[in-house]
Inverse folding.
């Protein structure tokens, strides 16, 4: 009996060592996944006017129910001292807003977000930007049209289109000069957009439009910097056989 027990002990020890090794390996693999896929990510930054800006991040997706987490965004300008975001409210959830007193153009901002939990901290990759490169203006509004003179029904009608910028105060300091792009198409041709660009004024006249129904939209951007705005609300424009009697 003693002989049998002595023979079995090495097998039990070896099995225990194997189990311990597998558990350690599995734990290390999970740790690698956490480090790579489950940390905050700063996915978008936008300035509407070069005077302030906001950055948004994706939060952690690996929290257990009820687990508390706090997000802290820190940044530096031109490799200066590190500062913490002063406004986590204005831009909505998972955001940092930089008001005019914290916004300086033509300086490089580098930032990251740290998720602080009871278990550990998770820090995003660093994102660096110049405010001038993230300007995205508001979409134009009040897109309207007026039918003007006709060169005869065979030649089509002319339409004067105009629109406005929704936040004129963004333009008052001269940092931003807008340019516009207008697109229009026949309703029956959903992919055949015709383009008017660049437009320096918030108006354009379309000449010789054949009788039909058209979809029209317009967008804008800073002439020197940044991204196109979203498209305006689409406008349905109808070109009749004859102009209405005056």
């Amino acid at each position: 009996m003693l002989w049998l027990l002595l023979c079995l002990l090495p097998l039990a020890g070896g099995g225990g060592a194997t189990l311990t090794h597998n558990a350690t390996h599995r734990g290390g693999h999970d740790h690698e996944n956490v480090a790579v896929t489950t940390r905050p990510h700063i996915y978008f930054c936008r300035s509407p006017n070069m005077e302030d800006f906001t950055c948004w991040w994706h939060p952690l997706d690996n929290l257990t129910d009820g687990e508390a987490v706090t997000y802290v965004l820190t940044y530096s300008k031109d490799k200066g001292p590190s500062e913490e975001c002063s406004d986590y409210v204005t831009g909505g959830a998972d955001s940092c807003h930089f008001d005019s007193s914290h916004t300086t153009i033509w300086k490089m901002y580098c930032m990251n977000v740290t998720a602080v939990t009871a278990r550990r901290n998770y820090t995003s990759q660093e994102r660096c930007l110049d405010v001038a490169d993230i300007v995205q203006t508001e979409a134009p509004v009040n897109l309207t049209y007026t039918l003007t003179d006709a060169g005869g029904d065979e030649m089509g009608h002319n339409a004067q289109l105009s629109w406005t910028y929704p936040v004129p105060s963004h333009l008052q300091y001269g940092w931003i000069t807008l340019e516009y792009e207008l697109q229009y198409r026949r309703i029956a041709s959903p992919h055949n957009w015709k383009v008017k660009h660049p437009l320096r004024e918030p108006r354009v006249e379309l000449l010789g439009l054949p009788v039909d129904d058209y979809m029209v939209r317009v967008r804008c951007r800073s002439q020197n910097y940044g991204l196109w705005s979203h498209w305006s609300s689409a406008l349905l424009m109808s070109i009749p056989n004859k102009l209405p009697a005056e």
Summary: The chain is about 15% helix and 40% strand. The chain has two domains: 39-134, 141-239. Helices lie at 2-37.
